[in-house]
Every structure is written in structure tokens, then in C-alpha cells.
């Protein structure tokens, strides 16, 4: 409430007019009175990194938003669902690291990890890697250390188990799998970290574009497993970062 | 085709009239010409053991069928989906071993196992045991050695792995699980025996009465896994026995 | 690896025979080599509190398990899906706090909260309260401070917003709703804490026993939302506790 | 019934033959006896504006229908699902306002609004705008004042709430959203106007092409919400106009 | 925003301290900024009639709420989903008109209709009548004139058509049908009033508890049709009343 | 149209006034103008046999309808979905043949068959017999010769084939099966008569209450197969009778 | 059975050896013993017209089959699912009438109708016409008189009713509709002829590619309606012809 | 466990230090304790033939893997889901037999069959052949004798039955069918070999891309039928080979 106090003191001092103050209050009603904590908090946190959902936007539109963000002091911008063509076009105007698999572009480089521990991103097969990279890069750009364990599907359990230490010492595990989605249950049984399960649309026939994996993960017999939408790598990475920064947030208060 | 040959020779010899032969051919067309091999073969094989599907039949009806079977020389009869009340009623007239969990009654006792090897019947949880017992007893009554591995679900992988030897040396594995049904994939990855997956209706919410486990099992990333209907323990046991007796059948020919 | 070192030293010293050591290694193969960390860790943590899934067990069975747990030094036991009748029967032998709404029994009382912050358990309507209480009591018995915000569904947004401070200062938010399940998205937009969404089977017609809420929550436009199975209050409470204790776990290492 | 009376009087007077009258009655049975009110009424009302469903019609076909309508005195014609190419081709022969987002062409310009109040067309995200524009333009061409509130999805509640006055003073609200479709419930709780919910196919994975939003909206916990088909912007705009002109219709009688 | 302006002027004038202003802004955020209009408006309007959702409440609970409402000046209370037993119990304490078919209780009697016109409630069959009565009584208790057209299903079109005048002169039509739900389309083609379609769970086999009717109604080829949840008679009656009172509401402003 | 012609001639002749004619036209629009042919025709034809849908009606209601039908000269009445209790109660007042399996009561006895040929009613198993009897008795009461072929499911093809003559000489075949519903395809391949397929809800697990059989039958690779609703024996019998009487109907015209 | 009799007499007479007879019986078992009636009968009947399913066949393959059929005395061949390109290619070698809408090619011209009466093919909209033409042409090529009633959907009931005479006097009615599929019920209520309902994939959103129409038609409240697969115009036309030729078939026997 | 025993004895004897033993145990946990049998066993067995899943891999990637396999002594490699273009590209570097229908490439030629008996691969129609060839070639490359019975669908039962001997003498039957999938049940009733059912996505409308066939096969009334995923020819061929080699495997032990 410091900003409002200052404004009110400005009125008292004559340095701020009543009309200007009223306009300000009207313009940002939620921001000033408590509700806007939401937004305020978000802006502060997002000073570090912000997201553009690239799907359905032209390279020009994305460049425009990016320009505006950078001008407003945004250090770092994550662009998801970005085609290679769009990335090439944008790169000619802004320095951009493009990750083809994940279809992600990052402006402003990667921050130092500042989370509680490490996020493990595991996939059942190699076809799940694009979704996994979307999750991993999202987590990294939000300041997390990420360990990638790809192709550790349950039909070759020894591959999974050979990474036991990493799985058991993770702060958060992201389990990404299509087909029967059993990876989430197996990892959930091996770790006491929260497991974020991401069903992928990888598979055919009765996988019904990820439905089989989705239902499988929702019914996991392991405790501590929750599920995000099919192919939603970004959502998993974002949530994992939230969890991996909980202590820091607690410190804020 | 010996019977037909004899009949044809009878015509040639004059001992059989054309009309009688024609009638005979008309009366049992499939049996005589090759088609009835099906039935013949089945009858022969079923000298050993036969099945009564008990659901929807009164104890009187079941007793009647049982009587008739025994009178026709049936050594051993398996009655599935048999309620405790019906079993009690039938027991008063026929010696019957009743298995409450599996809701199975067996008349004539268990045969000596004569299959190729051992059938492993594994379940994800304790709630899957009734389906598992239906499978196991069906297999046993058909002459198979059965190893039961119950409650070895994937969320406690150490339990599964502690039975590695049995899983790896099985001739056929029956994997029975509700919820996310991941057991089939895990076992399929641990053994090179055929895995018959039985989804169960155990679970709640988005398990949709076994649909989640069914889809999961159909999409198994492990090779060598096939699926039977939800809760179909009998079908799995029957099929496992078929597979476990293939060599014997081959010898028959 | 200290236990193994001791055992190996015992062999060297002659105080442990090779056969005994071998048996021990064979008996607990996964436990000793690293894999069993899973189990070990679980037992340690579960020294504080353990769970019995009450559904499908007789009061006698539950009492038996409870006895055994208490004898083995278990301080506190949570029994879920426990009917009032079973609770009454068990209570006659063990002191038990029974929570009728949540169908939960707790032996050993509540621990002091030792999590990072507060878990908010919010419901869309009053009919969602049983699931919410299952979540809240699970979280409490695992050592979490819980704030209950019931009946704050989105069709009366002012009710939701009047709890803005609690929602925004939570470490974890559990959003429980049937019907259209919009609560998860609204709460997800108001807080930067992880939101665990629990669809409930509350509703009728095209709610299809929670499917509508489930799909709605999986498609939440808010970041930081993940979903557990329909009516799975226990799972949500357990996962929330995991997240709310992440710092402590980090300290362990 | 005036026409029939005249015809009957014509028979009486001898100016109409019985056969001619019979033929007339047979030819237009429904029209003359009361049923045809439907059609008559429709034609009268449609003097103001008529609709051509453009999908699956060639530019030539559309031009032909448009010609015929204009020749028959149609002031204004709305063409929905019209591609840009078709619009360009038609424009060369008829003056046509083409709206690319909504894929709508309008011949004859916009009428003055003559409804009871204002129709609010709100969307959850920017991807829902094409459906919203179809709804808004349909409503405008039918004589309604429309307020557009785009991208006010529930995960950023402050955006929604900043338009509270417009939402609360609307005569009808059209809530258009994909993904979890929570907008309909939130708006339904903020206004006492009827809310027409339009699920859109925007989303991915478990949105199942709009099914998640559809089920969500059908299960809205807010009263006064009804639902039209997925992506059916035209239907929503048409229905909203019906409701917004109810008083006028009442005056007609 | 007048109150805030006054307060700000008070600061400028020195009659209000900055601290007091700050406290005031913090204390009543929603009320002061406009948001609380929602609740205020609702409370005013609901002076006339209020609803208790009876399902899952004991007669005692319902009586308690009813008492409290009446004490607070509520003229008239509608209780939905009320069993006959509960109604009998409540009746002993409050005068109550109970409608068994609709499972609705009404305290305070029916008001005079004050809507724009007449609401037609039509059903496809006699089994749909309970849902229809819920809709009709809800509309009546909210001050609407209702015409009931029951059992006018489309397989006997002459029955439907014999009520053409009533259908065509309605202000709002509620079309209630199970099975194939075609009634909504047929009525939608016969009237230019808004049609609120209510699928019912009446039917068997592939009606899938109302899903067939629901999909059918959502896909109506008639314009002006929208759909509420399966069996949601209350929702349809409530919405119809909203529409039928639009002119009055407009006058309010 | 003869009545109308007479009336019009009456106007011409002066024996009928214009006002009277107008009133007459207005009063009975459908009957007089051609539409009511529907009803008239139906009434005439239904002189022979009429149907009461017994589900959800009290024995008193059924008796009342039956009384009224008989008083109006109805020779024969079919009551479907009639419980044994209701049948007993009705029997005390009306002579009634009750068929317990089919839950059908018939008043007035069976007519002589007068159809073109024979209707074969075949079932896959014994559990489908209640649906089959509903079909068979419906067909018989409408004047058809029926051949019952029960338990001829495709897994024992020799049973099916042993009835080849009857199947091939049928005028219409009704194929009734649950589980995988393959009977319809097999019979469709064996006969050139129309096959009416009736999926039944017999089965378990992934039969999803008849959905598997329904989809199977809709996708039949045999030509000449059409499908009615799950368990709809009455509908199949009724339609089969329609087809088996087509020649007679043709003669009527 | 004449051939077999002759052979048996040959054995008796010594003109046929037992081995030759046995070989003959073994070689053509089904044909000789009664089963082959199926095939024989089919071949006889199909002397008049035969069908080639064109989808997935090259023009060369179709031409080859056509050649072979014509050489074997086939008068008339119907080719379904035939693309315009394939038709053009085939036409260069065989005279072929190609119907673009229906994607049907006919070699050998149309036969004189020889069915019992007239088949009405009705559609709900203009988009259903391709399916309708497939049905109509199939029926015509099989010797039926067909009346086309297109675009008589139930939302404009006057259009439907203006064809009442044709609908009521049909021998068979084919009702083809997408979207809500109500046409089948409406026509079923207007005629006492069998109604073959064909759901089409016309529609969008919640029509789910014809599922809405399919379910609607299966749940028709009108008696005498049965359903074929989505878009299966050929199946409907073929079945209608079967029904419309029943008398002739009866005469054959 | 011999290695561990030796090591433990070494400790006792002083020839192995505790630290070295500890390191050894830590380094190769799975191999030493028994778990690694899995991998070892697999590697040994896969000396004969290995599989590359070609979908989503570039020709370069496939060539690379192939190179590496051959260099490591792999005799024979099966590449599934291989496009013609990729095959052509690979062929220029490695000798490769490409099967266009099955989209399978085989390097190293076919082995001599060494299974127990013959595998029958049967299809319902010609469109199922690509899936069938995938199954048949997979089985052949794994050392099985395969009999192909294509286009023996149940609507022409005589075709099926004309292959009765082959069906009855098979060791394993693979039944491949789309549409209604009845083939599995019919074959299951004709043979006592295990039947592996493969639903295909062949069909249209309500086949829902193979769902109808899948459900049909899961509900087969024949015993001994299990199901793999839609279009999963490889899985069926692989499983059939497993079963057909069971005796050999048994001998191995």
C-alpha cells in the first residue's frame, strides 16, 4: 500500500491533484486496493521472465510484443509454440535462442538457477522429447536446474532404475509419456517428490490422441501424482518452477 | 472322412440305399463333411474339463447341467460366477469345492498340471484378487501350474522386483490391474513370455469402471502384451492354458 | 550405505557369517543397494503417520492392521473411506477421532503443523465438502496448517474475492468443485501458489459423474493448475503436504 | 383467414369455381388454414434482413441468391462462413462489407439498433474472437447495439471485473470461450441478464475440440445460462437478438 | 466513485488524515470500487422470491433456512428437489404447497404474473412431465403466465400442430424431451420466440441417460434454440422468466 | 378431400354459409385438409391391435386404458414392459396372457398370421431371450408367423449353420445379440432377407451396456442390415411386421 | 441336393468310384451339401446387377473387375465411391453413366422398376444430398421407383408437410439427415412404411461427425424406424430395395 | 549370486577390502543382484533379429542405427512403418527387401521357420491387408511359418469355411478386421488355437477409426481371444511368434 500512501500524501501536500488521483484509482482499481496484489505481484515476478504464446500470431505480431516487453524493461522473454520460420524472421530483429524440438524461442538468455533443488524431466520414449523440452526450457528460463531423463519408459525398467538417484533426489519430477502413460506411476512409486504427469498425444489407435495416457495418469496408484493437459509441457514446467521456488516465496512474506 | 467313405462303400455294395445316404448327409451336413471336426475335437478335449457359466442360472439349473455332464463321463466341471448360496445348494447334491473370492465351484477336483511351464498370475492390488483367483483356478482346473503374485503394483516397484525370478521364468504371465493398469507394461518389460492383460473395474472416478486400465493396457509400450475384457479372469486363465498347452496340441497332430 | 558397511566389517571381523550376509543381501536386495532408499525413506517418514485405505475392509481387518501398526511404534494412523459403523466398532478397541463428513478416522491425534506455509482448501459448493474434508484432514494429519474456504464457487464471485488475502498468501491451494469446475481456473488466476484441482462427482445430467469438471480443470487457462482423480480428496491433501514440506525435505539432504 | 373468406365469398358469388378453390386449398393447405402463419410471419420479419449460409456454396451460387433476394426487396443480407476469396468475387458484382475475422459479408449496410438494450459479447481469449465477431455482427445486422469485451478470461479476473458496469447493465450476455469455458459461469454470477454460452473449439489436448468447454457450460452453477453448439457464433447472435427484441414483438400483437 | 472523491478532497482539505483514508480503502475494497453492486442488486431483486435447493438437505435444515428467510421478509420461497417425506415434515411447521410430480414445495403462494407474455412449456412425452412441472412451477413462482403443452412429441405431429397458435404466440418456449429430443427443432421451426431446450434422461439403451437428446438439441437446425443441462427444469424455468421480464428490467434502469 | 368439396359446393348452392364454412375449416384444420389422414389411417389400421407401454404406469392406469380400448372395439391389446405383479393385478379384471420372460401381456389372444412369410428371431445367447421374446410376441400379435432360433451365436458356428434353411427362407430376420453382436453380420451374409439387428445390454466390462454390440451392428459388413435401439425387442418386432405386411398394404391402395 | 443324389446313384451304378465321390465331397463341401445355396442363390439374383466398391481401387483395377463381370454376363454394374478422375478414366474403356454428387458410376443403364411400390428418399438439408443420391441411385439400379424429397428438414415443417401424400404412400422411406437427425422421427410419425434412417456427418461442433444424428435416430420415438451407419447411402438404398421386393422374393419360393 | 558370495568370502579372507566391496556393490547394483538378467537375456536372444520403429525417423537416422546394428553382429533387422521414399534412400546404402503394403523393410533376409507350428493371418477384407502384411512379415522375420487367409470376412461365411483345415490346424491365429470385427469371434469358434485379434481403422462413420471393431473383439463370445491395439500388426505378429516358440523357450531352461 506504499504507492497509495504516497499518492494520498501527494494530495495532502498539493503535489497531486484530486482528479489525477481519482483517475489513477479508477484506472487501476484492483491494483491499488488489494485485489491488484495479484497483478502487482505478477509484474514484479515477471520482471525476470515473461511468456508469449506464439501459436496463431504472425512473426510481426510477436516481434511487436517482444519490442514492447523489452522496452518496458523485461529482461527475458519465453516464446512458446514458435515455428522455425517465425523464429528466423524474429531473429533478424531480436537476438533469440531458438530450440527447434521444443518450438521455443528465448530472448535474454538463461538465468542462474535459484530454486530449492533440481527438477527431473523424464520421458517414456524419444517421441515425447518435444513436449519434454518445452517443459525443461520453461523451467530453466524460470530459474530452475533441470535434469533430463529421456526414453526411460517402463517397458525397459532397468533404464528407469539406473537413474534412481536422480529420481529420488529431485525436488519435483515431471513424467512425460504417451501410449499407456505408466511412467507417472512408476516414478511416483520411486520418489517422494511431487510428480507432475504430462500425457502426450504420442501413440496410435486406442491411444485416442493421448486420452489413454491421460486416464492412466489420473488413476495412478502412486500418491503425489497430479496431471496437466495433454502435451502441455509449458504448464508442467511452469508448475514445477512454482513448486521449486516455494521456499523463496515463503521468505518474501 | 472314414464314416462317409463307409457309407459310400455301402451304396456301392448295395447295403445302403441312396435315399438313406442322402438323408444321412442332409441330417448331419457339417459333422460329416469336415466342418464338424470343430465340434468333435471340442468334445474330445472337453472329456477332461468343461465349464458352466453360473450367472443367471438357478441352483437347480446348474445342478441339472452338472448331473447331465457327469452322467456323460465328464471328469471335472468348472462353474464360474457362482454365488455362495447357489454353491451351498448345489453342494448338498454334488461334491463341490467352492472358492468364495473367485466365485468358482469345481466338481471333480484338480488335475495334475500337464502344461509346458508355469503361469504367473499377478495383480496390482488386493482388490484385484477375485479376478485373479478366477483366472488362476480356471488355469489350474485346465491342468496348469500357477504361481500367484498378488499386490505387486507398480507404485511399489520393489515388491514387483522381488519376484523377478518367477516373472522371468513364467511360460505365460497374466497381469491383472485396475486403476491405471501399468502392471501389464512393467511385467511385459521384465519377461519375454506372452502377457495377457486383464483390466479390472477396480478404481474410482476417472477409472470409468475399468476403461482407464483397458486403454492403458491396449497401448502398452511393451511387446507381447494382449488384452481381454474388463474383469474377464476366466478368459485370461483359459487363454493362458491354451498357450501353455501348445506343445501338447502340436504333438496330437 | 552404513548398514552394509557394518555388515561387511562384521564379515571381516568374523562376527557375521558369509551365508547370513548373503541371505541378508538376497532378502533385501533393493533395500541395501540404493533402490531401497525408497522404502527406507518411506518407513522413516511414515514413523510419523501412516494410512489405511478403509474401503472394502472389515472393522476386524482394520483393527488388526491398526494394532500391528501401533505395536510397531506408529504414532499416528489415518484411516480413509471409513464408514460410521466400522468407526464405531474400531473405536471400542482403539481411541479414534472419527470425522463423519470426510469418512476419515484418525488414531493418535493431530501433529503440530511443520510445513512451509498454509494450505487453502476451497470448494465450489457445500456438496463438495466431504471431499474437501478428506483433503483437509489428510493434510492436517501430515503436519500442515489448513485454511478451509467452503462454498466460494465462481457464480458468486464476491464470496471468492472476499477471501483474497487467504488465497494469495497460501503456499498451496486445493480447488475442489463439481459441476463446471471453474473454481480451479479462478483461483489459479488469483494466486501464484500451485493449485491442485479436484473434480468432484457432484452435479447431474451432463456432468457425467465428474467428467465435465475433470475436463474443465485439465483445460484451465490459468498456469500452475494440475489435476487429480475425481473425488480424490486424499490424493490432493497428500500432494499438497508434499509440496508444503519441500523445504524441509531439502534440509534433510 | 381473410384470404380464405374472400375465396369462399367468391364461390358464393360465382366468381370462383369450386374446382379452383379446391385446388387452391390443396396446393397451399398449411398456408391458408393457419399453419402458414409461420412462413408468412417469417417473410414479413425477414423483409429487414436475411441470411445466406455461405459454406459449401460457390461465389456464383451466393451471388445468384443475393441477386434474387435484392430483386425481391430484401434490404440487407448477411452471408456467414464466407471465405475471403468468395467475398472478393462477390464484391465485384454487389457492394459488400466483408469482415475477415468473422468470415461474414454484409450487403445493405448496418441498420439502426432498435432492441431493448445492449448485447455484451465477451470472450475468454483472443483466439475466440472469430466466433465472437460472427455473433456480434449477426446481432448488429439484426438491429442490436453490441458491446465487445474480448480477452476477459477468468484466469485474469481483474480484466473481467474492470468491465463490471457493462456486464451488469447488458440485456443479454454472450459468453464465448474455449478451453475450460469458465467464463459463462463467472459472467452468469455477475449479471442478471440471460447468458448465452458459446463453447469454442479453441484449446488442445483434453479440450477435445470444444467438448470440455461445452460440458463445462452445460453444468454451469450460475442460473440463467444456456448453451448453443460449439463455435456457433451466428446462433448465439441470432438468439440474443430474439431476446433483445422481445418487447417489440410483444407490441406487434 | 463519489465517496472516494469526497474522501480524497477531505485529504486535500486536511479534514481526513492519510492514515484514515488508507484504512477506509483497505477495509471495504469491493463495496467502494463498484464490485459490490453485484450483491446489492441481487439482494434487492430477491425480495420477491428465493430458492432453496432441497436435495441433500434434511427437513430440519430446510425448515431452518425457510424460517430465516421468512423472518428476513422473504415473501415467497421455492424449494426444489424436495421429497414427499421432507415436504410432509416441513408442512407441519410452515404452510407449504407441495407438487409431487415436480418435487417442488412453494411457501407464500403464487404471485400475479407480471412478465411480458406467456411461457409455453412443452414435452415430447408423458414421462417428461416431472421435469416440465419443475420448469413450469419455477416460472410461475417467478411471476410468469405458463401454458403447458404436454405429450406433443414429434412422432405424432398432428398433436404438436394442433397447438400452433399457442406455440406461435409464446414469448418463450421451453421444449422438454428425452429419447431423440427432436421436439426442440420442430418447435424452433414453428415459432420465432427463443426456445430453451431441456434434454431429459427419459429413454433407454443408446439414449445414454439423456446424452442423445442433449446432442440432438445442441445440433438443432432451427435458429433460436439454446440448451440447458439434462433434466434441468429449474434452470429452464428460471431463464425463461429472465427473458420474459427483460422489458421490466430495462424499465428499472 | 371429398368433405371439403361438398362443403364448397354447399357454399355455391347457398346451403352452407361462408361463416359456417370458415368455422369448420378453422375447427378441424388437419383432419379436413389432408394432414389428418395420418391419424385416420392409423386409427383404421389399429382396429386390429394396439399397444400399451407398461413401464411407469400403475396396474390401475393400465387397466383403465385397457378398459377404454376394449370398450372402443379394440380386439387385441399388447402391453409391453409389464411386471409380473402388475400383470397379476390386471389379470384379476381382464383375461390376459402374461409372458414372464418378455414381460409382455396380451389381451384378446393371438391372431392368425397374415403376413407375406416367416419372421426369424435369432439370438446369440440364452441371456438375449427376454429381448427376443419381446420381439417375437410383438410380431405374433401383429399377425406374423415367427420362427425362434435361440442361442445360435457365432462362436459355435455349427449351431447357426444347422438352421440354414430357416434363415435362408425367412422374409425378415431379427438378429439379437449382446457382447460383440457379430450375429447380425453372420446372418446378414447367410440370407437375402432384411436383417433387423437388436443390440442387447447383455455382456460385461467393455460391452458398456450394449454399446459394443450397437457399434458392431452399425458397422456390419453385410448388406441389408439395419439397427434399432439397445434392447428394443418391441421396435424390431413392430418393424419386422411392417415389412412382412408390405404386400398387403400395397394391395390396400 | 440333386447333384449329390446323382453322384450317389453313380456310385450305386458303378459309374462313379468311391474315391472320386469322396474327393468331390471334400473339394466343394459347402456347395454340395446345402450350405452353398447361399452362394448359388446370390449368383442367380446378382445376374441382374452387381456392385463394385470403388474406394481404394485404381481405375485399372475397377476396369478389370468390370471387364470380368461383363464377360460373365453381368447386365448392369454399380460402382460406388468413385472419384470423377477414376470415372473419366474408366469411361474411356466402358460406357458409364457417372453421377458426380453421389460419386456413383453405372454401367449397363437403369432397369425398369419392378418393386412393390415407391421408395421415398428424403433429406433434412441440401448438404445431405450426396448421401441421398447414393441411396436413390442404388435403389434405382436395383429396380425401384424412387421419389426424391430433398431439403425437407424439420425446422421448416411446412416444407415437410407439403409432401405429405408422397410420404404417406411410400412403400419404404429413407430419411437422411445430419445435425440433430430429427427427420427420421418426424417422417416415422407421418407414414406407416418402414423408415430407414441414415445419419450423415453433416454438421459441426457437437454433431461429432454424425454421432448426434446417429444417437437421435436410434432413439426415435416413432415406431418402424431402423438405422444404418453414418453416411451409408448405399446400405440404405440396398436395404430399401430388399424390402420393396419382398413380395417378388416370396413368389420365387 | 555367485559373484557376490565370492566377494563376501574375499572380505572374510582379507583378500578384498571392505571399501572395494562397497564400491563394487554401489557401481553395478542391478547386474550383481539379479535384476540385470533382464537385459542380459534380451541381448542374447536378440542376436537373431532386431526391430527399428521407422516412424518419425529420417532415412539418415535409420541408416545410422542399421549400420550400428550390423556392425554389432545383428544378422537381421526389421524396420516397421517405413515409407517408400525412406526405403529407397536406405536401399542405396544397405541391401533391403521393402514391402510396400506393409511399409516394412527387412535387412538380412528371412530365416528358416523354427516355431512349433503355423501362424494363420486372416483378414476380414482387402483393406485390412496392410496391417495383415505387417503382422505376417514380422512373424516370418522372427522365424515362423505363416499362412495368409485374406478377405475371409464373416458376411461371406463360405469363404471363411473353405479354409477350415488351415484355421483348425494353426498354432496361433491372427484375426484382423475393421468395421464390426466379427472375424475374431467366428475364428475363435472354429479353432482351439489362441486367437490374437487386431482391430483395424478400416471402416467409416460409426466405426470411429477402429473403436467399433476394438470393442467387438474385446467382447468376443469365443474363448481364447485376446486383443492388441488398433492397426497393431507388428504387435500381433510379435506376440504370435512368442507363443509359437514357447516350447523352444521351455527347452532353453
Question: Would you kindly provide a written description of the structure presented here, covering whatever features stand out?
Answer:
8 copies of one chain form a homooctamer. The first copy, chain A, has 253 residues and is of the alpha/beta class. Chain A folds into 2 domains: 2-107, no CATH class; 118-247, Rossmann fold. Chain A is 46% helix and 16% strand. The first copy, chain A, contains 13 helices and 9 strands. In chain A, the strands form 2 sheets. In chain A, strands 6-5-7-8-9 form a 5-stranded parallel beta sheet, with helices on both faces. In chain A, α10 (183-190) links the parallel β7 and β8 (195-199). The relative contact order of chain A is 0.10. The A-C interface holds A 34-35, 37-38, 41-42, 45, 116-117, 161, 164-165, 168-169, 171, 189-194, 196, 214, 218-219, 223-229, 235-236, 238-239, 242-244, 246-247, 249-250, 253 and C 34-35, 37-38, 41-42, 45, 116-117, 161, 164-165, 168-169, 171, 189-194, 196, 214, 218-219, 223-229, 235-236, 238-239, 242-244, 246-247, 249-250, 253.
